[in-house]
Amino acid sequence: MRVEMGRDVADLYWRGMALDYFDGRSWTNTREEKFRVERVDDAFMTEQCDMYGAIEQRIYLEPIDSDIIFGLPKICTVRVEGFSLRSDAGKGLYMRGKSSRRVKYSVYSSVGEGYAGQRMSGICSCPKG
Length: 129
Description:
Layout: E1 2-5, E2 21-22, E3 27-28, E4 34-37, E5 39-40, E6 43-45, E7 55-61, E8 75-80, E9 85-88, E10 93-95, E11 103-109, E12 119-120, E13 123-124
Antiparallel strand pairs: 1-7, 2-3, 4-9, 5-6, 6-8, 7-11, 8-11, 9-10, 12-13
């Protein structure tokens, strides 16, 4: 994966998917249902945010066995051609199907807003920071 950004950012973590249950040995996702994200014009709008203040990330993803969309949190818009997008309860984003070719997409993130976490079963399902 290669990422190009218009400005530098520091001390931020990349986000792909979130897992919500730890059995003492490994993490899993107990809420596997995925929902369709509607396309508005040429973009998928996943959250409300200020697009003028959002950080654009142009991502070039090599063919791997994954359908996960990566980006800085809080992802509010995704632009990708040729794919539909799905989301899960943990705000993970996924391309419909895995690609056998390089995929280029743009993610717009409102990094100052972050995600509101919630505590579940004694385990925090939110990112640290």
